[in-house]
Design a protein that fits this description.
alpha/beta, 387 residues, binds pyridoxal-5'-phosphate, seven-stranded mixed β-sheet, single chain, five-stranded mixed β-sheet, 14 helices
C-alpha cells in the first residue's frame, strides 16, 4: 500500500511491519548479529552496514516524516554530526542561535577547531537568516521548536531564504515530532530526530535518525554511519520501533496535557511567565497555529518567582514530576535549564522546562501547585501581578 495515502495513526502500526516468514511472529523480531552469511537473502554483509531491525525502524520513521528514506543512528547527536560531516572542510554553517544546547556546543567545537565556520542567528528574524546565508553557506540548521524557550521557527520563510543559495537545509524536528509538521514537505533536505525523546517515548533508549527527501542523500549518510561507525544498537532500534507504534497516542495526550497546564499556570501569582506556543501570549502563537498540527507542543517553560534557588526547590518538591534532564517520555519531567551554562545564555535563571507525560492532567497540576506552595518562602515580596 502507498504509505503517503495513510494517516500517521495507521502508519505507526503498519509501516516497517513485514510478515515473519520463519515463525509467523506478529511482532517484528529483534535481530542481533554482527555479520550475515554470504549468499543469504538481502546480502547485508557486515553488521555495521545495516540490520533488519534498523531497516524496520527506518521504514516507519521515513513514513512518519513523508521522506524517501531514513537512516537510523546511534543518537540524535550522531544524526546531526553525520549531516555536518557532509559540509566540506572550511564550509559555512548557519544555525539557530537558540538551538538545542548539544548542537550549539558541537558547532562551537567545529568552529574552534577550524573544521567549519559557524554563524548563529536568531531564526525569528528571517532577514538575519537570509543575510547570514548570502555569502555561500553550505548548511542551514533549523529547529521547528526551540529548546527551552519553545520559539517556533518560521520554516517556510527560512527554507525560502535558503533556496537558490546552494545551502542544504536540516531541520531538527524532535520537539515538534513528525505529528506536528513535515519539514521535508516544506522543502527541507533532511530532518533529524532524537528518537530518544517522543518517538522512543519511554526514557529507556538513546537513538536518532536522519530522514531525507532524496535517496542520494541517504546513501551519503549511510556511508558516514558505516565508516564513522555511529550505528544504533540493535536493542535500541527495536525499542524505538516498539515505542513508535504508540507515538501518536502518547504525543496527543502529552500535547493536550502541556496545553492545559500552560493555560492553568499562566496568571498564577508565583509564575512570572509561561512559554508555550498554544498560548495567545506566545510571540509565535499565530505562526504555530498555522504550522503545527494542533498548534502546540508537549513542553511548557515556566519562569517562577525567586530565581534559580526557587526553581530548584520546586523541582525537588514535586513528587510526580521526575527531576531530570531530557524530555518526551511517558513520565512527566522537569528541570531548571539555567543549570547548564549553554542554556543560561538563552533563558532566565528561574526557568523550569516541563515535559508533560501521559498522566492525568489534574494530578500533574495539583503536584505543581503543591510544589509552588511549599517553596513560596524562597520568593518573598509581592507576587507577580495577574496577567
Ligand atoms: C535530545 C535532543 C537532541 C540530541 O539527541 P540525543 O538522542 O540525546 O543525542 C537533539 N535535538 C533536540 C531538539 C533534542 O531535544
Amino acid at each position: 500500500m502507498d504509505p503517503s495515502a495513510l494517516r500517521p495513526e495507521t502508519l505507526a502500526v503498519h509501516a516497517g511491519h513485514h510478515p515473519d516468514t520463519a515463525f509467523g511472529a506478529v511482532a517484528p523480531p529483534l535481530v542481533t548479529t554482527s555479520t550475515y552469511l554470504h549468499g543469504a537473502p538481502g546480502e547485508r554483509g557486515y553488521g555495521r552496514t545495516t540490520n533488519p531491525t534498523w531497516e524496520a525502524l527506518e521504514e516507519l520513521v521515513a513514513a512518519f516524516e513523508g521522506g524517501a528514506a531514513a537512516v537510523a543512528m546511534a543518537s540524535g547527536m550522531a544524526a546531526i554530526s553525520a549531516v555536518l560531516e557532509l559540509v566540506p572542510p572550511g564550509g559555512r554553517v548557519v544555525a539557530a542561535s537558540n538551538g538545542y544546547s548539544g548542537t550549539r556546543v558541537l558547532l562551537r567545537h567545529l568552529a574552534a577547531t577550524g573544521r567549519v565556520s559557524v554563524a548563529l542567528v536568531p531564526v525569528e528574524d528571517t532577514a538575519a537568516v537570509a543575510g547570514a546565508l548570502a555569502p555561500g553557506a553550505d548548511l542551514l540548521c533549523l529547529e521547528t521548536i526551540s529548546n527551552p524557550l519553545l520559539t517556533v521557527c518560521d520554516l517556510p520563510a527560512c527554507i525560502a531564504a535558503a533556496r537558490g543559495t546552494g545551502a542544504r537545509v536540516m531541520v531538527d524536528n524532535t520537539l515538534a515530532t513528525p505529528l506536528g509538521v513535515h519539514p521535508l514537505d516544506l522543502g527541507a533536505d533532511v530532518v533529524v530526530h532524537s528518537l530518544t525523546k517522543y518517538v522512543g517515548g519511554h526514557s529507556d533508549l538513546i537513538a536518532g535518525c536522519a530522514v531525507v527527501r532524496e535517496t542520494a542523500l541517504a546513501e551519503r549518510l549511510r556511508f558516514v554511519r558505516q565508516e564513522v561507525g555511529g550505528i544504533p544498537g540493535q536493542l535500541e532500534a527495536w525499542l524505538a520501533l516498539r515505542g513508535a507504534r504508540t507515538m501518536v497516542l502518547r504525543v496527543e495526550r502529552q500535547t493536550a496535557n502541556a496545553a492545559e497546564l500552560a493555560r492553568r499556570l499562566e496568571g498564577h501569582p508565583e509564575v512570572i511567565r509561561v512559554h508555550h506556543p498554544g498560548l495567545a501570549s506566545h510571540p509565535q502563537h499565530a505562526l504555530a497555529a498555522g504550522l503545527l498540527r494542533g498548534g502546540a507542543c508537549a513542553l511548557v517553560a515556566v519562569e517562577v518567582r525567586g530565581g534559580a534557588e526557587r526553581a530548584d526547590a520546586v523541582c525537588e518538591a514535586a513528587q510526580l514530576w521526575a527531576h531530570t534532564t531530557s524530555l518526551g517520555g511517558v513520565e512527566s519531567m522537569m528541570e531548571r535549564r539555567s543549570r547548564y551554562d549553554v542554556d543560561a545564555e538563552v533563558c532566565s535563571p528561574g526557568l523550569i522546562r516541563l515535559s508533560a507525560g501521559v498522566e492525568h492532567v489534574d494530578d500533574l497540576h495539583a503536584d505543581l501547585l503543591r510544589a509552588l506552595e511549599l517553596t513560596a518562602h524562597l520568593a518573598p515580596g509581592p507576587a507577580a501581578p495577574p496577567r
